Amino acid sequence: MTAERFQAITGRYSQLSIAVVGDFCLDRYLEIDPAKSEVSIETGLPVHNVVRVRAQPGGAGTVLNNLAALGVGKIFPAGFAGEDGEGYELCRALAAQPGVRLDHFFQTGERHTFTYGKPLVIEPDKTPRELNRLDQKNWTPTPAGVVARLRAGVVSLADEVDALAILSQVDQPETGVLTTALLETIGKISKRKPERLMVADSRRGLRGFANVTFKMNRAELALLAGVNTELDLEAAKRLALDLARRQSRDVFVTLAEHGLLGASPEGLCEHIPAHLVHGPIDIVGAGDAVTANLAAARAAGASIAEALQLANAAASIVIHQLGTTGTASLEQIKNLLV
Question: Which of 128, 69, 77, 127 has the alpha carbon at shortest distance from 327?
Fold first, then answer.
């Protein structure tokens, strides 16, 4: 990518408005100093002494963090948090990001704040080591009143923004933001406004999602296509092209160490190899960085190949950030690409 084309695309980011619809959670990192280890007098068990706590938006919040790092002008999170301490931390962390508007993000006493508690052992000259997580999730269906409020917010946002990034992060169906009812609403928006870019990703797979731009990994593509074997590159291209034609929307597939590919309904298929790895890596957050960069780049007029280049560079930057769910700035991406 030339410097001129990079500037032409990314120079539009500050004028973009993008909504992030999905399961926002709080990533709470508990940094443990093993040099300060003790044994509990009461239980006789080892004590992990936490010397620093870091809290940042996770889940759909990781997509938002990356959009903010790209300098997107207006970012609208659409989701919920609980009326609890974690919800307070999450709302504060979201509001601290540049460009974020909380008009359609709300707290409710009917839900807990989705939280990932991540104990990290921090030792000099060693890679941070994560212990067993302490997570807090919702295990019951999202209440009807909360769903109604989410639906109204997404309908309103669809008329305000240039693109929507959609992320389902929960394992249990109907317990998060992307319920069947909200997916029906997104489907109606897709029919009413076919020109509106909507990029969707789901850890449970995208079956049941409307005609939106799909972003998935290779295993999720195979599952959606009903294929029981690992896909090689050519098979992934073929299935992505078939899906793009049937959906009448672009399809993007992450291929881990083999990079990214994108297919269009018109029959175009592009593959971008991954950047070389240097040193230890942590893949957490790489997929969300891809989603953010695809949404911003395509909304700014980038071609599929250009969007893939930007997203691929962002993923490479993020995986080299250890002990955190990282982001990639425009300067970092430019230094890798131009």
Answer: 69
Closest CA to 214 of 272, 172, 165: 165
Q: DSSP alpha helices (H): ranges in the chain?
A: 3-10, 60-69, 85-95, 144-158, 180-192, 218-225, 233-247, 286-299, 304-319, 330-337
Mean pLDDT value across residues 243-252: 95
> How confident is the model at residue 338, as a pLDDT?
87
Distance in angstroms (rounded) separating the CA atoms of residues 297 and 288: 14
- Euclidean distance between CA atoms 42 and 141, whole angstroms: 39
Find the angle CA(41)-CA(44)-CA(50) to the nearest 5 degrees.
Answer: 75
**pLDDT, tens only, 7-28:** 999 999 999 999 999 999 999 9
Contact partners, residue 170, CB within 8 Å, separation at least 6: 23, 114, 137, 138, 176, 178, 203, 204
**Second-level CATH architecture of 3-337:** 3-Layer(aba) Sandwich (3.40)
- Residue 56 in contact with residue 112, Cβ under 8 Å? no
Question: β-strands 197-202, 163-168: how paired?
Answer: parallel
Distance CA 302, CA 296 (A): 9
Give exposure, 168-202, as e/b (b: 16+ Cβ within 10 Å): bbbeeeebbbbbeebbebbeebbeeeeebbbbbbb
User: What sign for the dihedral angle of Cα 125, 327, 52, 139?
Assistant: negative
